[in-house]
Design goal:
The complex is a heterodimer of chains A (291) and B (323).
Chain A: H1 3-28, E1 35-36, E2 42-44, H2 79-115, H3 117-131, H4 135-145, H5 150-161, H6 163-177, H7 180-187, H8 192-210, H9 212-228, H10 240-248, H11 255-282
Antiparallel strand pairs in A: 1-2
Chain B: H1 2-29, H2 34-42, H3 51-60, H4 67-79, H5 93-128, H6 133-146, H7 150-164, H8 177-208, H9 211-218, H10 223-233, H11 235-259, H12 265-274, H13 278-306, H14 308-312
Helix pairs in contact in B: 1-13, 5-6, 5-8, 5-11, 5-12, 5-13, 6-8, 7-8, 7-11, 8-10, 8-11, 11-12, 11-13, 12-13
Classes of the chains: A mainly alpha (291), B mainly alpha (323).
């Protein structure tokens, strides 16, 4: 295995930890014991034996200790359990938003590159318009007047994140459509759809696919910002962004409410960007990116 | 050059109109009658509002006209800085925005200045020895900064400096004065610093690897002269970076103001969004779009002035940098 391959594998494994945590969270952090006796007594409890929404007003703002490993928040909810469950929202929002952004970008990029002419100019203008608006401003303006929900947030984030994919796919399609092998396929009577899907897209798409981890990272950041402002998925869904907004009001105390979601956010985005770097390092044909 | 400038200005104007149409469409097409929402938000939620009152409200704010007419009227008025009255307290929106803008502008200017002052030398030093110790360390730090949401950085700063060390105030109100601005400025500056340092490093390293740099070295150029020429050769790329930096700073500023309870335009936007105060949201979006489009126009013109080749190309290409 070449060093580049090994690096890619490490990056992929590190990143895959987060979807894994997201999948396992309901199993690992729950009040219901794993194995209970006939009379309902606990025999084997879950590793984090607290539901994320379980309010315990007697133990508000408990500092980290034996009972609550990372302490409790202002409603006495277990911080660790909420952080684990918050992974679900961030990972799902990141995956959904970046997949939608890639789909939209690939569709518009192909359209622009293949059709050319006025269609191309229209798509480019639209691209310029979306890039001229700070992503968060557009997402906030939209989220303000739509009912806050997970789906709305993901859609709005995708609406701002498709531009890079569209640029890459457009450039690839433009370059490929005049290649000799495409001409040859056209000469044999291949339909437009066949030319696109069999001959052009398989070569035009990979550069955009390689940027997916970066898009995912920025989608996670935008979602967290939206939740922080209170415009993300509504309570009681456990969310890192909202947990941070709640912890802000508890300052200067309760550091244990801030650090877990902050570090979780950081590592999720960091591993995603690492994965992107590993992809680009392996694929020399993609222009190296800064952000 | 003049033709290029005129074409870019026309395209910038078109982009601006497009941005406004996009936001206007998004905000007004949203479900929920703005009149009903505002009337409800204005008072007790339990009080029922008569249909006549709602109709009068809609008529008062022009919500009963066709969408395109409303959009064109709004654009025409916005061009003369008349954004109507806030649905929240009936004050002119322009006044509310004008009161919030100075704090935001001061914050962003200070942050950008600080980021440039540190980021450019850092990038140059890292570029002198690609793969050297400084390059690797700064690369790692910048990568970490890219992965940190601005508001998380601000929160951690608050926790450490205001919570534990107690050297800065917890809220950046007007009473706390300059000391309250320290942390917000540092937070925003760090976020832009990573972008600037990495960008400068890539551009200068490329310029130093250029045959022109080799020729200079062969002539016996001193290192300082070499760097100066490398910076000069990549200056048009720096102008392009400015256009990329502005939207990311605007986005960051909204969250940073919220973290530090700084009464600026970002806080106003968040407030207006919660009150579903349509005129204020539109006015603030207008401001941010104008700033971003103007910055990108200026960046293109500066780049063209520094490097006439750009003006001859059809489309100014910016290396893919996400905001």
């Amino acid at each position: 295995m070449t060093p580049a391959r090994a690096a890619l594998r490490r990056a992929a494994i590190a990143f895959a930890l987060f979807p894994l945590i997201a999948l396992l969270a309901p199993l690992v952090a729950r009040e219901k014991p794993w194995i209970s006796g006939r009379g309902g007594e606990t025999i084997v409890s879950a590793p984090v034996p607290f539901d994320p929404d379980a309010v315990d007003l007697d133990r508000r703002l408990a500092s980290p200790g034996r009972r609550h490993l990372l302490g409790t928040d202002e409603l006495g909810r277990d911080v660790l359990s909420r952080a684990l469950h918050g992974t679900r929202l961030s990972v799902a929002a990141g995956l959904l938003a970046s997949a939608l952004a890639l789909g939209l970008g690939a569709a518009l990029g192909t359209l622009a590159g293949w059709a050319g002419g006025r269609t191309d100019r229209t798509v480019l203008l639209f691209l310029q318009i979306v890039q001229a608006l700070p992503a968060l401003v557009l997402v906030i303006a939209g989220a303000a007047f739509l009912k806050p929900s997970f789906l709305v947030a993901a859609l709005l984030i995708a609406l701002t994140g498709w531009t890079d994919a569209a640029r890459l796919v457009r450039a690839g399609t433009q370059r490929l459509k005049n290649e000799a092998f495409v001409d040859a396929a056209r000469a044999t009577g291949a339909s437009n759809a066949r030319l696109l899907f069999v001959h052009v897209l398989p070569h035009a798409l990979p550069p955009a696919l390689a940027t997916l981890p970066y898009v995912l990272g920025s989608a996670v950041l935008t979602e967290a910002g939206l939740s922080f402002l209170g415009l993300g998925a509504p309570p009681p869904t456990a969310s890192w962004g909202r947990a941070l907004a709640e912890a802000r009001n508890l300052l200067p105390g309760a550091w244990w409410c801030i650090l877990p979601p902050a570090l979780a956010l950081f590592f999720l985005v960091w591993t995603a960007r690492r994965l992107g770097d590993a992809f680009l390092g392996r694929r020399g044909d993609v222009q190296s990116r800064l952000a | 050059m003049l033709r290029f400038a005129l074409r870019r200005a026309a395209s910038a104007l078109l982009t601006l109109l497009g941005v406004l149409a996009l936001v206007f469409g998004l905000v007004t097409a949203a479900p929920g009658d703005a009149a009903a929402l505002a009337a409800r938000a204005g008072g007790n939620r339990a009080v029922a509002i008569s249909p006549e009152a709602l109709a009068a409200f809609r008529h008062l704010y022009g919500l009963d006209r066709p969408l395109t007419e409303r959009f064109l009227t709004w654009v025409w008025r916005a061009a003369r800085l008349d954004f109507g009255r806030s649905l929240l307290d009936g004050q002119p929106v322009a006044l509310r925005v004008a009161r919030a803008l100075p704090a935001t502008l001061a914050l962003n200017t200070a942050a950008l200045l600080l980021a440039t002052l540190i980021g450019v030398p850092l990038g140059v030093m890292a570029a002198r020895r690609p793969g050297g110790r400084l390059d690797r360390i700064s690369g790692f730090v910048c990568d970490a900064l890219f992965s940190t949401p601005t508001f998380v950085l601000g929160l951690v700063f608050l926790l450490v400096f205001s919570g534990w060390l107690r050297v800065t105030p917890l809220f950046a109100d007007t009473e706390t004065g300059l000391r309250g601005f320290l942390l917000p400025v540092a937070t925003l500056a760090l976020a832009s610093l990573a972008l600037i340092a990495r960008f400068v490093r890539v551009c200068v390293a490329a310029a130093l690897a250029d045959p022109a740099a080799l020729a200079g070295r062969a002539r016996g150029e001193r290192p300082s002269e070499e760097i100066r020429r490398a910076l000069r050769r990549s200056s048009s790329a720096f102008a392009a970076m400015g256009a990329v930096l502005v939207p990311s700073v605007v986005s960051g500023s909204i969250l940073v103001e919220r973290v530090f309870s700084l009464p600026g335009a970002g806080s106003l936007l968040a407030e207006a969004v919660f009150a579903r105060d349509l005129p204020t949201v539109l006015a603030l979006t207008w401001c941010s779009a104008v700033v971003v489009v103007a910055a990108s126009l200026v960046a293109d013109l500066v780049a063209a002035a520094l490097d006439p080749r750009t003006a001859r190309e059809d489309e100014v290409t910016v290396p893919g940098v996400a905001a």
